[in-house]
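BUG-400 | component: ligand-complex export | severity: low

The export step for (2S)-2-hydroxybutanedioic acid jobs runs without errors, but we want the raw record kept on the ticket for reference. Input record follows.
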Amino acid sequence: VFANVVQAPEDPILGVTVAYNKDPSPVKVNLGVGAYRTEEGKPLVLNVVRRAEQLLVNDPSRVKEYLPITGLADFNKLSAKLIFGADSPAIQENRVATVQCLSGTGSLRVGGEFLARHYHERTIYIPQPTWGNHPKVFTLAGLSVKTYRYYDPTTRGLNFEGLLADLSAAPPGAIVLLHACAHNPTGVDPTLDQWEQIRLLMRSKGLLPFFDSAYQGFASGNLDADAQSVRMFVADGGECLTAQSYAKNMGLYGERVGALSIVCKSADVATRVESQLKLVIRPMYSNPPIHGASIVATILKDRELYHEWTIELKAMADRIINMRQQLFDALRARGMPGDWSHIIKQIGMFTFTGLNTEQVTFMTKEYHIYMTSDGRISMAGLSSKTVPHLTDAIHAAVTR
Ligand code: LMR
């Protein structure tokens, strides 16, 4: 009965790892998926995560019962505090409905399904370009996806005029997906002044902000600085949605731990919103897994563990920033034609190199360098040892 099922293509991001794993070359480098690697090219489990896990293992009161549909209560409270700030009026006034979800993707999907059922405007505007999974998540959630201009390939920076024009032309009430920081794939973020202009425009048109916060602390090394865009929209008293992921900033990729928060106008509304989120979640996966959320809660509620986390987080962010400088210096020393300063200007895990699909294919075939076909490289996958090889590959691709 399944004889007519056609072979589906690999995922444009996760499929890069599949191809990389099949390549027997000893010089291969995986710069595809956004997953942190050490200088030695190894995945990293944070020391603070190991410590939290030890505490959990040694605690005999820990059982494996089902969590509530909304997840671990402590985790939800602490996650809201992390993104909105401990002194956020929205939290103090109990106006935030937070549910634990399956990392960033799950939070976006649950938020999208809630909006498709309960919000009057079904159109969501996503930046052009954006993370490849965004349009699929929201379309399957039942929303209609449109794009707004974001990136300007000529300046390799923000197309701010285009962004404002497209949001101005959006129907009143439309949902707008915003990357809280470290825009994926471009590494281009609005300045605080530009955020303020975006906020004013969106509030004046009643556009609903839906933040994807996958890199809090990873962009600058500072958790508060990376949450500023979100906090500006919460400070004005209006509604917003936020999807948080702990994949990158705690290195909990495979634990699938994240949170969806919906900031409402009153505590009463937030209670009703939460009751409806439960109706979205229950038939989808009943309730979320306990382990990852327990790790996060253990770290966030303990002053010493929290401090240790911020230090390890900053070290990861700093290594990425350092890799940007090393790659930029190496390309300059190599006498590369053109301006490559975007490598040090862009923010977060990725550099949007400007290399085209054909150049990427060449680099993969001839140099065994794996990256997404849009020219995005994960700086976290690079090390001092692999910079010369990548420099050779880019040089050959650009000058051939
Ligand atoms: C990425 O963009 O590489 C990450 O967010 C991982 C993913 O799931 O795509």
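Assignee comment: Attached the raw record above. The pocket of (2S)-2-hydroxybutanedioic acid is lined by residues 13, 33-34, 131, 133, 184 (CB under 6 Å).
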